[in-house]
Amino acid sequence: MSHEVVFVVDTSYSLRICHYEKVLLFLKSLSDVVVRHQIEVGLMGYADEPHDISPIQNYDDEDVYKLRVSSIRKMSRYPWFGWTNMGKAIAKMIELFNFNKPKKKLGVVITAGKARDHDDLMSIIYEVRKRKIEMAAVAVGFYTDANEMAHIACSRKNLFYIAEGFDGLKASLLKLIMYHFCKAE
Predict the structure, then answer these.
(1) φ and ψ at residue 15, rounded to 5 degrees
(2) 44 is in which domain, residue-wise?
(3) Which of 15, 80, 177, 179 has its Cβ near the most Cβ atoms within 10 Å?
(4) Which residue in 176, 115, 117, 170 sits closest to 146, CA to CA?
(5) pLDDT tens by residue, 19-60
């Protein structure tokens, strides 16, 4: 059984530029695993609206994957710099998955803020569960809502808090991906 992973990256005003750069470096550091294990990956940024959407695909070349990660832009539109509309972003993530074939699915939401569209987010998460999409939530910094993050992640083991560095996250997230999505290989 093949597997699909979509990384949903907060690019709104709540994600500091230093954290944004670390998020992109972190995603690039996964390139060897993505290519070696032929994990189908989709990428997208979000703020007011989902943007810089890359459909789910296999990457045969690490540099192509890294280039795609680099194309996720940080929102910098004055004066708002973009709200954190997680509900809209996760709804778009659902659309990226291929439900016509039996594939394991993982959505990874990386955010530094609280959902501006909290009520929509709660109903979208219900849809995620119904479609059997596993979720991981990565809280960057100190301004996320702990209850919201726990609701996004489908279990406590899929919930990660990053205050400064991403070193521990790589090992934990790779363990999650490899255990849930590559054990059948």
Answers:
(1) -90, 110
(2) 3-182
(3) 15
(4) 115
(5) 888 899 989 998 988 898 888 999 999 998 899 999 999 999
Please give the structure tokens belonging to residue 47. 């703020």
How many domains does one find in the chain?
Answer: 1
Structure letter (DSSP) for residue 73? P
pLDDT in tens, 128-152: 999 999 999 998 877 888 889 999 9
Question: What type of residue is 46?
Answer: Y
Q: Which residues make Cβ contacts (< 8 Å) with residue 134, sequence separation at least 6? A: 104, 105, 106, 107, 154, 158, 180
How far is CA 16 from its chain centroid? 17
What CATH number is attached to the domain comprising 15? 3.40.50.410
pLDDT at 16: 83
Helices 17-29 and 167-182, interaxial angle, to 10°?
A: 40
Angle at which helices 62-70 and 17-29 cross, to 10°: 160
Question: Hey, what are 102's tokens?
Answer: 């039996």
Report which DSSP code applies to 75: P
Written as one string, the DSSP assignment of 153-181 is: SSSGGGEEEESS--HHHHHHHHHHHHHHH
Peptide bond into 79 cis (omega under 30): yes
DSSP one-letter string for 129-151: HHTT-EEEEEEESS-S-HHHHHH
Cα(179)–Cα(156) distance, integer angstroms? 16
